[in-house]
Design a protein that fits this description.
Layout lengths: L1 E4 L20 E4 L7 H8 L4 E4 L8 H4 L7 E4 L9 H6 L4 E3 L7 H16 L1 H9 L17 E5 L3 H12 L3 E5 L5 H6 L3 E2 L2 H7 L2 E4 L13 H6 L5 E4 L8 H10 L3 E4 L19 E3 L8 H19 L10
Parallel strand pairs: 1-2, 1-3, 3-4, 4-5, 6-7, 6-9, 7-8, 9-10, 10-11, 11-12
């Protein structure tokens, strides 16, 4: 039986679990993204088992229908909007998921790393140091104390980001479609309108789940409301922001974006965001850390072993 581990970009998957315990299973790790559904179908056609890392590789019905040998899927994390679990269920293919470590805490930590990097020009400063320069072309940056932190979404992750903002001495405000003043107050923030969130925030950070209501939620008009020099941070999902509007806004304004997520991932090598000086970029590292990898891949091996034994566990499309 053949098992495919997808999108092992860092070539670490085989180190973080005992894949050899899966007797008579040939394990193959793919360390780059497929260029298209057609390439994915061609490369995955021989495999009975596919192990997905979150939503790095979209797995729609169109791909599933091209995989006649597929019998079992294991997914890291709780869910993946790009995985068609219903299409798999219709073919009698179970999907098992895994636990994760920290409940989003690593994303909170990365959010603050990006905020501080953007506010103090750390990315450009680091490039200066490596090229033998010093303060050349660096702006003054700004201290966070006394500034306004705007949170687009105040769920588990957003509330934790707000708590750290308060510790930095920031005023915290928030908006989402279902946010109430009482819920905002319980998280140490003040509920404001969407327009005020964009108009008055010094740092605006996004913490929403991607779905039909949030895709493209941050529009051209929203971005144009942001005050000069304000920072936009996204560690949630790229398509929440209208990417074309984001690029146009960054080209025309003195604002800064700090991004961990993108419309297309991996971000193409020739993408315009890579060439912009007023953008701090990281390669979707919000959930990437050693503890998560050990749980993700350890649970994946457990999932496969249980399915091979005829008793699948953690099934999400049963």
């Amino acid at each position: 039986m053949k098992l495919a581990i997808l999108d092992d970009y860092q070539r670490l998957a085989l180190e973080y679990a005992d894949w050899k315990s899966l007797h008579d299973v040939e394990v193959v790790a793919f360390n780059r993204a497929f260029s298209s559904t057609e390439e994915a179908a061609e490369k995955l056609k021989p495999f009975e088992i596919v192990c997905l890392m979150r939503e790095r590789t979209p797995f729609p019905r169109a791909l599933i229908e091209k995989l006649p040998n597929l019998k079992f899927v294991s997914l890291t994390g709780a869910r993946s909007p790009s995985l068609d679990t219903q299409a798999l269920k219709e073919r009698g293919i179970p999907v098992s998921n895994t636990r994760s470590a920290g409940g989003g805490l690593s994303t909170v930590e990365l959010t603050w790393g990006l905020i501080i990097a953007a506010a103090r020009g750390l990315a450009k400063g680091e490039r200066n140091m490596r090229s033998g320069r010093w303060h050349e072309a660096l702006g003054p940056g700004f201290s966070l104390s006394g500034k306004r932190l705007g949170l687009l979404g105040l769920g588990n992750i957003g509330a934790r980001v707000a708590a750290i903002g308060k510790a930095f001495g920031m005023e915290c405000v928030a908006w989402s479609t279902n946010l109430t003043p009482e819920k905002a107050q319980s998280a140490g923030a003040r509920c404001v309108s969407k327009n005020e969130l964009f108009e008055k925030s010094d740092v605006l950070t996004i913490h929403l789940v991607l779905g039909d209501r949030t895709r493209g939620l941050v529009s051209q008009s929203d971005l144009q409301r942001m005050k000069p020099g304000a920072i936009l941070v996204n560690t949630s999902r790229g398509p929440i922001i209208d990417e074309a509007a984001l690029i146009a806004w960054l080209k025309k304004n003195s604002n800064h974006a700090a991004l961990d997520v993108y419309e297309r991932e991996p971000l193409p090598a020739d993408h315009p965001l890579r060439r912009m000086e007023n953008v701090t970029l990281s390669p979707h590292l919000g959930y990437v850390h050693e503890d998560n990898y050990r749980i993700f891949y350890g649970d994946t091996v457990e999932n496969v072993a249980a399915w091979l034994a005829g008793k699948p566990i953690r099934v999400i499309n049963g």
